[in-house]
């Protein structure tokens, strides 16, 4: 990070939260810091002052919104400015990266595979989060394989979801009159609020979303018994099965994460490794596009 000397890990976590909220929600206030870290108002205000002393051009106070807004020249200093940071924070509520980030544990012989991050606009995320919290309709321009240049739609978002390596929003689509998944990187321009939802189209009315489904996975039956036992141990199976409980619309994403295609088996069982034990029960959810 661009500081001249290492910061205490708790200070670093607080500065990261300031940047994440400012960039992706468009506002950060001392009350948010207090709630996140269990500290008082005066200490929260002090942290904000210290951050602004370091980077005076990043935040601007807005009296009407009772908080600090990102300036037009905002530049992330303690975060990467990637949407995953904010969305993972939403998912964990307090998960500011690893809890051990910044502790200076030294170099270890580890390596992770860097995967591309899909480009997502902070302004898009701000409007989606605001609409999902307040039950608002949004007019959006959304690109897809059927409309690569983008198509205008009106949606009512209710949940942000990370699955199969990308973030999307679950929302009611007024054009199709049903609930669909919209990939965050495919929104074009900035969504425009259209007022409160017409009728009830929140998560409580999304029956598919509320349906819990069991996905039962077993070792590929073509493997020798010893190799099947090896797979059972790898996946932590109980009585020869791994049972995943997830929402109906997420079943296909779960299978994709595990590299299981319900419509195709690898010729080599060692490449396949696992298979679906209850495929007929999942037929409704495993339309593989």
TrEMBL record:
Supply the name of the protein.
WYL domain-containing protein
Task: Give the WYL domain ranges.
Answer: 124-190
The DNA-binding transcriptional repressor CapW C-terminal dimerisation domain covers 213-282
Annotated InterPro entries: CapW-like, CapW_CTD, CBASS_pafABC_assoc_protein, WHD_CapW, WYL_dom
Where would you find the membrane-spanning parts of this chain? none
Q: Where is the DNA-binding transcriptional repressor CapW winged helix-turn-helix domain?
A: 10-91
Species this protein is from? Litchfieldella qijiaojingensis
Lineage of source species: Bacteria, Pseudomonadati, Pseudomonadota, Gammaproteobacteria, Oceanospirillales
Matching entries from Pfam families are given as: BrxR_CTD (PF26107), WHD_BrxR (PF26109), WYL (PF13280)
């Amino acid at each position: 990070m661009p500081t001249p000397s290492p910061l205490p890990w708790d200070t670093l976590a607080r500065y990261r939260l300031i940047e994440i909220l400012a960039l992706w929600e468009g506002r950060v206030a001392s009350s948010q810091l207090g709630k996140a870290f269990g500290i008082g108002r005066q200490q929260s205000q002090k942290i904000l002052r210290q951050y602004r002393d370091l980077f005076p051009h990043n935040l601007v106070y807005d009296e009407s919104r009772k908080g600090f807004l990102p300036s037009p020249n905002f530049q992330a200093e303690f975060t990467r400015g990637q949407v995953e940071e904010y969305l993972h924070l939403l998912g964990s509520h307090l998960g500011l990266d690893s809890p051990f980030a910044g502790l200076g544990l030294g170099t270890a012989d580890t390596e992770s595979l860097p995967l591309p991050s899909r480009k997502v606009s902070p302004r898009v995320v701000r409007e989606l989060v605001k609409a999902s919290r307040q039950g608002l309709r949004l007019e959006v321009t959304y690109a897809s394989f059927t409309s690569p240049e983008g198509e205008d739609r009106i949606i009512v978002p209710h949940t942000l979801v990370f699955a199969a390596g990308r973030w999307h929003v679950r929302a009611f689509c007024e054009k199709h009159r049903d609930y669909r998944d919209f990939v965050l990187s495919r929104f074009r321009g900035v969504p425009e609020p259209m007022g409160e939802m017409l009728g009830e189209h929140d998560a409580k009315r999304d029956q598919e979303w509320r349906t819990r489904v069991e996905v039962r996975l077993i070792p590929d039956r073509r493997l020798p018994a010893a190799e099947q036992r090896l797979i059972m141990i790898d996946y932590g199976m109980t009585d020869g099965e791994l049972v995943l409980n997830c929402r109906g619309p997420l079943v296909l994403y779960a299978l994709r994460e595990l590299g299981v295609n319900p419509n195709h088996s690898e010729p080599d069982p060692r490449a396949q490794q696992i298979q679906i034990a209850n495929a007929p029960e999942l037929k409704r959810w495993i339309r593989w596009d």
